[in-house]
């Protein structure tokens, strides 16, 4: 059984049919990438898994550790161990790095009253572990989040999600707008997180960067999965890359 199983989901924004019988699986412990052009349906896929609405998921099933989560509200999906870092990195600019990290704890405590039955264990991850994974944030604990660089804000957004101790961390275009050197720093952080035991589903338009850390890749095109294979296979498959990713 895979950690995450998405089976034949159909998702809509009003009457626009976006995801068409989309299926994918993420195995425990891996870094899996979902690649595709602008507008292919990547964000819609992550929102469908996370229980975020819209879109409206009208058919199919999402299972996490074998349990169906597709009918659950987003808060309960998060409590069951799925973390999502959305495209727009939401940090509180006028709070320090450390205050931002404490806020995620508040959010978790509040949702505990709703989600207690969903996730039996799952304490917040200690700040010391977070700082170990993100030495940059450690150095900037008392700095206002708004004054961090784009890459550091991305790391803070990821760190906030990690505080909830997710088993699966879904990242929506974490490299967007970052300089190549900074992308490497974020990649290193994602690799450290994965090595420490968190499974990662990475959505990217930057196929080269995603393939460099992903074990396996899916390509989505017009709401359908059109490729499923390991990163090396995709790296060697010029035709598929050209056709669906333009690289
Ligand atoms: P991007 O890199 O642009 O985020 P993506 O692969 O993540 O691309 P989605 O954001 O999932 O693509 O969008 C898939 C399709 O759904 C696009 O045609 C987009 O215009 C449409 N769409 C996305 N969000 C909404 C919304 N809230 N309402 C209506 N249509 C939407």
From TrEMBL:
Example of a GO MF term: ATP binding
Alphabetized UniProt keyword annotations: Amino-acid transport, ATP-binding, Nucleotide-binding, Transport
Domain ABC transporter residue range list: 4-247
A Pfam cross-reference name: ABC_tran
Example of a GO biological process term: amino acid transport
Family: Belongs to the ABC transporter superfamily.
Protein name per its UniProtKB record: ABC transporter ATP-binding protein
Native source species: Halosegnis marinus
Organismal lineage: Archaea, Methanobacteriati, Methanobacteriota, Stenosarchaea group, Halobacteria
């Amino acid at each position: 059984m895979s950690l995450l199983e998405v089976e034949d989901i159909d998702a809509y924004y009003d009457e626009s049919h976006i995801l068409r019988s989309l299926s994918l699986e993420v195995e425990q412990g891996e870094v899996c990438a979902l690649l595709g052009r602008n507008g292919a349906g990547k964000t819609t896929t992550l929102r469908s898994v996370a229980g975020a609405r819209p879109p409206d998921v009208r058919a199919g099933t999402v299972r996490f550790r074998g349990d169906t989560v597709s009918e659950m509200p987003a808060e309960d999906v998060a409590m069951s161990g799925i973390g999502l870092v959305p495209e727009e990195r939401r940090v509180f600019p006028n709070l320090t790095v450390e205050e931002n990290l404490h806020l995620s704890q508040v959010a978790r405590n509040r949702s505990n009253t709703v989600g207690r039955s969903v996730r039996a264990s799952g304490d917040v991850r200690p700040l010391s572990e977070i700082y170990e994974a993100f030495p940059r944030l450690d150095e900037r604990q008392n700095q206002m989040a708004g004054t961090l660089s784009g890459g550091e804000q991305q790391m803070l957004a990821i760190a906030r999600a990690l505080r909830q101790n997710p088993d699966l961390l879904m990242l929506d275009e974490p490299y967007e707008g970052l300089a190549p050197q900074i992308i490497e720093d974020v990649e290193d952080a994602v690799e450290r997180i994965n090595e420490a035991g968190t499974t990662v589903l990475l959505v990217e338009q930057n196929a080269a960067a995603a393939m460099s850390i992903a074990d396996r890749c899916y390509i989505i095109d017009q709401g359908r999965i059109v490729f499923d294979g390991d990163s090396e296979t995709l790296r060697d498959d010029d035709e598929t890359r050209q056709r669906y990713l333009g690289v």
